[in-house]
């Protein structure tokens, strides 16, 4: 089924307007102890697309991803996966339903969150096996994903023996082993030394070329420019501006966007 | 009485000392986990009650608890004091140590970063799978030094069983000391406890080393 999806998305244009959105968020609101973090967020992403979310710290970017992945409970709004409601008007679907939606997405965290007591191999294989995939199949997936991530020979290493960049690539492999329809990245390079960000961004870029559907929260502007189909600029819990990378980076319309990007260039 | 006779007589009580030690660990280690989980319960009533019980168990002498469990049933209900004192002794020790282990477990569980739970949740682990496969192994590694501390203390605390005249090694030693007006049995007891704890230290150190394969 996955292979079918890939061939379909290969045929779609870069903007991917031909197919229905895999994820759609409408009027999402989230407050922590009455402090509004997401005020009114609406956006959608089609299969094969890459959306990057940029904006200053505290603008709600990470909270947006955490709501989309059910790690935070939204207060109001809709979340739809494949046109089905996971959240409707602030009311969540049943636990069982949410479990099913959870199989559709993967998440890559800022701090990798690998399981330190598991080898690289077990980190990748165990979640896959727990979903009912055979051990052999899980192993095969892990081996080929590690190869893709440039981590051959690291199967038996433990996370503490790897660099941050390598750990993050293992985390990406772990998420991909479950064959998600959409992958969320929450500032995947923010915890890395500058010299290690490149190897992680390269892998994400490669995934984009393979037409993986991704939402990437990032502070890497040139990466966002190069890899995205659409860029979302968030500030103060709102989406201030949304458009093609060319539009956002070369001709931003909003004052806030201009100011944010000019701060970045300094 | 020669030194050798003293040592042999006291050795007869070592089996009972070991019985208290191993049975207490057997019961208090899992019981402590149950208490820790109840202590962290989201139900405010449950967590407050458990919290109160822990303060009582940690805030009153173990010796008092031993007496209460052993003779309490007699004073309260007129029940016969059980002839096999091992049962009340192990009950008192297990409950007391469970309270200490519970707080060690709680500290360990709360020290696991939220990101571990979040990663597991997104990867589709159930709450039970997350606890057993992801959290618990990491907790065990983190709390091992504190647990070793308690285990070492337990070895020495077994001597408190003399307050209810349970015939373990120290009780016998005290009886010999009284009848012979000699201090030697106490020295023998000290050496016994030291050797016991030397072994405990080696065993726990070995386990710690085995868990050192990751940081």
Structure write-up:
Chain A has 266 residues and is of the alpha/beta class. Chain A has helices at residues 2-11, 61-68, 95-102, 120-130, 135-148, 164-176, 194-209, 221-227, 245-250, 255-265, and strands at residues 23-32, 35-45, 50-54, 76-81, 84-88, 91-92, 105-108, 182-186, 213-217, 230-235, 238-243. In chain A, helix 4 (120-130) runs parallel beside helix 6 (164-176). The model of chain A is unreliable at 1-17 (pLDDT under 50). Chain B has one domain: Orthogonal Bundle (MetI-like fold), CATH 1.10.3720.10. In chain B, 80% of the residues lie in helices and 0% in strands. Chain B is built from nine helices and no strands. Chain B has helices at 3-12, 14-39, 44-59, 62-77, 86-110, 114-122, 127-157, 169-180, 184-210. Chain B is flat, with a radius of gyration of 20 Å. The chains are: A alpha/beta (266), B mainly alpha (215). The A-B interface holds A 69-71, 99, 102-103, 105-107, 109, 111, 113-117, 126-127, 130-131, 158-160, 174-175, 178 and B 113, 115-116, 118-125, 129, 133-134, 137-138, 141, 213-215.
The amount of beta strand of chain A, in percent, is 15-25%
- Helical content band of chain B: over 70%
The chain pair with the largest interface is: A-B, 26 and 20 residues
How many runs of DSSP E, i.e. beta strands of chain B?
Answer: 0
Mean pLDDT of chain A: 91
Q: Report the major sheet of chain A.
A: 6 strands, mixed
What is the approximate shape of chain B? flat
- The total strand number of chain A stands at 11
Separation of termini of chain A? 47 Å
The CATH homologous superfamily name of chain B equals MetI-like
Helicity level of chain A, as a percent range? 25-40%
For the termini of chain B, the CA-CA separation is 54 Å
The largest β sheet of chain B comes out as: none
Number of helices of chain B: 9
């Amino acid at each position: 089924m996955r292979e079918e999806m890939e061939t379909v998305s290969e045929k779609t244009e870069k903007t991917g307007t031909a197919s229905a959105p895999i994820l759609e968020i409408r009027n999402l609101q989230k407050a922590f102890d009455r402090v509004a973090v997401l005020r009114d967020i609406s956006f959608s992403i089609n299969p094969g697309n890459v959306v990057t979310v940029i904006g200053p710290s505290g603008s709600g970017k990470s909270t947006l991803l955490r709501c989309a992945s059910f790690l935070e409970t939204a207060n109001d709004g809709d979340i739809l996966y494949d046109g089905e409601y996971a959240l409707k008007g602030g009311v969540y679907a049943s636990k069982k339903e949410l479990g099913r939606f959870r199989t559709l997405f993967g998440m890559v965290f800022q701090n990798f969150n690998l399981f330190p007591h598991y080898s690289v191999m077990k980190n990748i294989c165990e979640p896959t096996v727990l979903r009912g995939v055979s051990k052999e199949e899980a192993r095969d997936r892990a081996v080929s994903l590690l190869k893709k991530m440039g981590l051959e020979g690291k199967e038996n290493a433990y996370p503490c023996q790897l660099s941050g960049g390598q750990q993050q690539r293992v985390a990406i492999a772990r998420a991909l082993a479950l064959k998600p329809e959409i992958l969320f990245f929450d500032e995947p390079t923010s915890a890395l030394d500058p010299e290690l960000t490149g190897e992680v961004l390269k892998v994400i870029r490669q995934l984009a070329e393979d037409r993986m559907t991704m939402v990437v929260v990032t502070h890497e502007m040139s990466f966002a420019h190069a890899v995205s189909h659409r860029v979302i600029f968030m500030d103060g819990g709102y989406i201030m501006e949304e458009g093609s990378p060319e539009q956002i980076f070369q001709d931003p319309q909003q004052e806030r966007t201009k100011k944010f990007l000019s701060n970045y260039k300094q | 009485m020669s030194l050798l006779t003293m040592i042999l007589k006291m050795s007869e009580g070592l089996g009972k000392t070991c019985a208290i030690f191993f049975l207490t660990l057997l019961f208090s280690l899992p019981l402590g986990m149950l208490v820790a989980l109840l202590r962290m319960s989201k139900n405010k009533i449950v967590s407050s009650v458990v919290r109160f019980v822990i303060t009582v168990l940690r805030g009153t002498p173990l010796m008092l608890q031993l007496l209460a469990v052993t003779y309490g049933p007699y004073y309260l209900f007129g029940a016969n004091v059980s002839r096999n004192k091992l049962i009340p002794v192990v009950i008192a020790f297990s409950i007391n140590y469970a309270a200490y282990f519970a707080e060690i477990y709680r500290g360990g569980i709360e020290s696991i970063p939220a990101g571990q739970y979040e990663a597991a949740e997104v990867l589709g682990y159930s709450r039970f799978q997350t606890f057993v496969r992801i959290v618990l192994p990491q907790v065990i590694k983190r709390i091992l030094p504190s647990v070793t501390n308690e285990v070492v203390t337990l070895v020495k605390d077994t001597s408190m069983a003399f307050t209810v005249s349970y015939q373990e090694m120290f009780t016998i030693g005290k009886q010999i000391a009284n009848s012979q007006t000699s201090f030697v049995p106490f020295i023998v007891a000290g050496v016994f406890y030291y050797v016991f704890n030397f072994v405990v230290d080696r065993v726990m150190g070995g386990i710690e080393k085995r868990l050192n394969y990751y940081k």
